[in-house]
Design a protein that fits this description.
about 110 residues, alpha+beta, Trna Endonuclease, Chain: A, domain 1, 3-stranded mixed sheet, two-stranded antiparallel sheet, about 45% helix
Amino acid sequence: MGSKSKRKGAVGERDFALFCREHGYDVHRTAQHMGKGGGEADVRGLPGVHVEVKRTEALRLWDALEQAGRDAKPGEIPIVAHRPNNRPWIVILSADDFMQIYRGWEMGRSE
């Protein structure tokens, strides 16, 4: 990855971490706090979720989701947080993982 791509990636990771903090979660870039080796999430602070951040105009969706799934630890839900220029953040995950999250939300709602 070129230095411009690395810089944009780091900016995206900081931006998504800030987005999460604005929503009340203590999230930080992995590289800022512990150094980043292969297979580490881009950001930490959302327990049970492996976050792969992509700050790009042309997302290679399947490649990104496969990378998140490959790097996720057992029991973690792999997600891709994506934001192109002048757009809001979106989160991409498999339909099976979405249903798992939705069931938990639905059960909590009925209590």
